[in-house]
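Task 17 of the worksheet. Students: predict the tertiary structure of the chain below and write it out as structure tokens. Keep your answer in the requested format; marks are given for formatting as well as content.
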Amino acid sequence: MKELGEVIRIEGKNAIVRVNRSSACGTCTACSMGMENKKFIELTVSNTVNASEKDIVELDMETPNILLAAFIIYGIPLISMLFGVMLGYYVLFKENVLASVISAFVFLIISFVAIRLNEEKIKASSKFFPTISRKIPQEYTPIA
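Model answer:
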């Protein structure tokens, strides 16, 4: 996935890049940390191309990494919840619907806690963050 962004400031070896929220973002808050009503997202990315303030840059993130991040955020809780339903309904409580619903929510909460406990390890992996692939020449229109 490629996006254009404008470098708004430099912090050491990182660049703070302002990017338009795309329709692909939907209501995902992975980048914006809960700023779902904002038109722009500010991302901290490694400044590998020595971009300066006001430069327009192309950000790139590999599609498999986007899919893996989506699976971690959405897939694991969903699978955990379905596992909880099946376990509660067929194994533990022998076709008791209320017990299976409770079991599903217990497994959902466990999956959220597991993801939260591994959040630092996930954040430490650079594959889940976009990188600056190149600077865009100045004759192109800057991000509005």
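Marker's comment: Helices lie at 63-92, 97-117, 119-124. The chain has a mean pLDDT of 82.
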